[in-house]
Design goal:
Order of helices and strands: HEEEHEEHEHEHEHEHEHHHHEEE
Radius of gyration: 57 Å
Number of strands: 13
CATH class of the largest domain: Alpha Beta
Shape: elongated
Strand order of the largest sheet: 1-2-3-5-4
């Protein structure tokens, strides 16, 4: 067997010549993954299917001709040439054209799962709980070594140093991530570990974020009695747990800001209000002092007397007028009483009897007013002022 001795560069050059010469122009269909726009304007990404994955790049001048924005999960058809990058010994497709071939398998699966869970009511707005304004403890379900956790701890420490942070470690990508994330959420609820629960991770490809769209994670978030803030990836990233959570934060850093009021700002606001109240009170006290300044101790009695004296005089005059009016009224009433008494006494039978008159009654006690009612022999009773006289009628005159 003949063995060809080559350097790495020579071997790579032969591979490059073979590949680039054999695949000068190819059309490849696959699912877009790990899309990474570069600061230079170029777009680096991967195309994959069920069995393989290949890196690809589309340069800025070609990228400008696209009429859509490439996103992870899209099923794309690209045309270009195969290129070998010798310093790294890798090959990739240099894309000249790109078009949408259809919905990606992952996005189609997520959309189907989203519709099914939404139909169960897991995403309903009336299930959402309000976050406490001043939580005492915040639990974080995330990778213990990830940058997302460090950002959350730094922001909470800066904005609200009094908040206690409990870390519930869990892998955030891979097949074993979803069961552990769901278990951590249930654990936090079982032991009532926190007032608010942050579930999330930093940015990544659509495949990297799949654990947070797993059905058991979504159900654990929806069933959590502790308010949950979903903080998965960056602003453009999303996961199904975003819809089930009580609040969705665009980034883990934003989640830390949402669950913690800026206590420094609150303290400054309290100090500002305190200073404002102090100024108002001092102003009112000074105004009261100015109003009380004329009323010193020596002049107070004179001023009070000056205020009270006219009223006391009016009170005395009113009292004298009332006494005089009462006396006049009593004298007038007394005269009327005396006159009525005289009239009553003049009309009294006793007054006539005192002048010598008597009352005559028959045997039945009826007053005798005329002699025609009497006959000879009738018994009569004569009542003078004092005593009683009984007599018999002997004669009468009409």
């Amino acid at each position: 067997m003949n063995v060809i001795h080559l350097t790495v560069s020579e071997l790579t050059e032969k591979i490059r010549s073979c590949l680039e010469g054999s695949f000068a122009f190819v059309s490849v269909e696959g699912e877009l993954s790990n899309c990474r726009p570069a600061s230079s304007g170029h777009l680096y990404f991967s195309l994959k299917d069920a069995g393989a994955k290949i890196d690809a790049v589309m340069f800025r001048n070609k990228l400008r001709t696209l009429n859509f924005e490439p996103k992870d999960g899209m099923l794309l058809r690209v045309r270009g040439s195969l290129s070998v990058y010798a310093p790294r010994g890798t090959y990739s497709i240099v894309c000249e054209e790109m078009e949408i071939a259809g919905s990606g398998e992952i996005l189609a699966m997520l959309e189907k799962r989203k519709q099914r869970l939404a139909a169960e009511g897991l995403f309903d707005a009336d299930r959402k709980k309000s976050l406490p304004r001043f939580p005492g403890t915040v639990a974080v379900v995330s990778s213990p070594t990830g940058a997302a956790l460090r950002d959350i701890i730094n922001i909470l420490g800066r904005r609200a140093a009094g908040i206690k942070v409990i870390i519930l470690p869990a892998p955030v990508q891979g097949d074993e991530a979803a069961p552990l994330i769901a278990a951590r959420i249930k654990q936090a609820n079982w032991w009532q570990l926190a007032d608010v629960l942050i579930v999330g991770r930093g940015g990544g490809s659509l495949e990297d974020l799949l654990p947070f769209s797993d059905e058991q994670v979504v159900r654990a978030v929806a069933e959590s009695a502790i308010p949950v803030v979903s903080a998965v990836g960056h602003e453009i990233d999303w996961a199904l747990c975003d819809f089930a959570a009580d609040l969705r934060a665009p980034t883990p850093s934003a989640a830390a800001e949402l669950v913690s009021e800026n206590r420094v700002a609150i303290i400054m606001a309290i100090r500002t209000m305190k200073e404002s109240f102090t100024r108002i009170i001092q102003s009112r006290i000074e105004k009261a002092r100015l109003l009380l300044r004329p009323f010193d101790q020596q002049d107070m009695e004179y001023r009070i007397r000056a205020i009270l004296q006219p009223r006391l005089i009016r009170f005395d005059d009113a009292k004298e007028e009332l006494i005089k009016a009462t006396a006049d009224r009593c004298a007038a009433l007394r005269g009327r009483i005396e006159l009525a008494t005289a009239v009553l006494e003049a009309g009294s039978p006793l007054a006539a009897m005192e002048r010598g008159f008597s009352v005559v009654t028959d045997a039945n006690g009826n007053i005798v007013r005329t002699s025609s009612n009497m006959i000879k022999g009738d018994k009569i009773c004569i009542r003078p002022l004092k005593g009683k006289i009984t007599a018999i009628v002997e004669s009468k005159e009409e």
